[in-house]
Design goal:
Layout (H helix, E strand, L loop, with lengths): L23 H9 L5 H20 L5 H9 L12 H15 L2 H14 L4 H44 L1
Helix pairs in contact: 2-3, 2-4, 3-4, 4-5, 4-6, 5-6
Length: 163
């Protein structure tokens, strides 16, 4: 995997393998802790969103599902601190990184319902559609190869029985 270029003044990045992984009970505490005031509620929403963003961009198995669960409508009482468009876009990123291109396209389209001018959501929707088409072509090719092999076997069996 090629690393993205950094700004000259940015500190060096630690390899992903060296980053600490918080215990699941800490993640659950951040994700589900109740807020007492509107200001605290907004701070909790921002923390939940940052956690979901990190999980959506993670390559670890299961992290994308956790991000989607955090962002799911009705899972939490989201205040105005995090826009619905952003929550749906990050859910689309999580689905796309997990390889669920149909769900990624649907979530990107939901984000576009909130803001039709969101270029990131549009780009992700197009990428998901391209991946769906690519998977379809690969699937059709695999079926074609399978049919050719099966046809070859049937032909070979038919010619050996005639002899």
């Amino acid at each position: 995997m090629r690393e993205a270029p950094r700004a000259p003044h940015a500190p060096p990045r630690a390899p992903r393998a060296d980053l600490p992984r918080p215990p699941p009970d800490h993640v659950h505490a951040v994700a589900s802790s109740p807020a007492s005031s509107a200001e605290e509620h907004a701070a909790h929403d921002a923390a939940r969103f940052r956690l979901a963003w990190a999980l959506a961009h993670s390559r670890r198995a299961g992290d994308g599902e956790r991000a989607v669960a955090l962002l799911r409508e009705g899972a939490y009482d989201w205040a105005d601190a995090v826009a619905a468009r952003d929550r749906r876009y990050i859910a689309a990123v999580a689905h796309y990184n997990d390889g669920d291109f149909l769900a990624a396209r649907a979530a990107a389209e939901e984000a576009l319902k909130f803001d039709a001018g969101c270029r990131q959501a549009e780009t992700l929707r197009v990428a998901a559609e391209d991946a769906i088409a690519r998977d379809g072509i690969i699937g059709i090719g695999a079926v074609g190869v399978g049919a050719a092999v099966l046809g070859g076997l049937v032909t070979a069996l038919a010619t050996t029985r005639r002899r």
